[in-house]
Design brief:
Strand content: 15-25%
CATH architecture: 3-Layer(aba) Sandwich
Shape: globular
Largest sheet: 5 strands, mixed
Order of helices and strands: HEEEHEHHEEEEEHH
Structural class: alpha/beta
CATH superfamily: ABC-type transport auxiliary lipoprotein component
Number of strands: 9
Radius of gyration: 21 Å
Helix content: 25-40%
Number of helices: 6
Distance between the termini: 64 Å
Number of domains: 1
CATH topology: Rossmann fold
Strand order of the largest sheet: 4-1-5-8-9
């Protein structure tokens, strides 16, 4: 007996993909806005920047974010990468609006001062960030963690291994130590056929396999666009 195969019309497949993208976009646009999370553009924000969740030489493992509690698959990130991401964060914010943005060097200086005063450096991260902010006279402190930085293997059109990047950002209000906003980016690039819903990343990379730096740059832009 001859088997018969049912072939879906092309227009039906296109319609199904379009509906999936539409619903995905609607869901992303209806995120609730946290209470009292809107800034006015005159605040002083101290940029602490990123810290590696795992130091060089540590084995990969699952790590919980000290500030948000989110879970990440983490690998050691080189200090040069962390410093470059911190610099990128500062440069993007410095040129974005009229807020007073304090560079990471000032936050590092405040931390060193606290250490020299025999301050308890084992404080909860939010409390330490609050103390750094108070010392600098800041209204908010922006800090995050780097969880993964895996470079692509192969070329931009034929990669043997895709780039994979993960990091978090948190905006801490100095007056009460409350985290008023948090964001995370955790992505391993996939081909469009593997993840049809991730069209934004596919287009952002120009339809090519991205480097870890390019993927991280897209993620940083995404998080800063969501930040109040």
């Amino acid at each position: 007996m001859q088997k018969r195969f049912f072939v879906f019309p092309c227009w039906l497949i296109v319609l199904a993909v379009g509906l999936l993208l539409l619903f995905a976009g609607c869901g992303a646009g209806n995120k609730p806005v946290p209470e009292k999370s809107v800034l006015h553009g005159t605040e002083k924000i101290a940029i602490v920047g990123f810290k590696a969740a795992l130091d060089e030489g540590e084995p990969p493992r699952t790590v919980r974010d000290p500030l948000s509690g989110a879970v990440f698959s983490a690998e050691a990130v080189a200090s040069a990468v962390v410093q470059e991401m911190t610099r990128e964060l500062y440069e993007r914010l410095k040129s974005r609006d009229g807020r007073k943005i304090m560079p990471p060097g000032q936050a590092l200086g405040a931390y060193s001062t606290l250490a020299s005063r025999n301050m308890n450096l084992a404080l909860l991260p939010a409390k330490m960030l609050q103390k750094i902010g108070r010392m600098l006279g800041a209204d908010y402190v922006l800090a995050g963690y780097m969880y993964r930085w895996v470079e692509r293997k192969g070329g931009s059109y034929a990669a043997k291994r895709a780039a994979s990047v993960a990091f978090s950002l948190h905006l801490v209000r100095v007056s009460d130590g409350r985290i008023i906003w948090k964001g995370k980016f955790d992505k391993t690039q996939r081909s469009l056929s593997e993840n049809i819903l991730d069209l934004k990343t596919f287009l952002g990379g120009g339809g090519r396999w991205m480097s870890a730096k390019k993927l991280a740059s897209l993620g940083l832009d995404q998080l800063l666009a969501e930040m109040p």
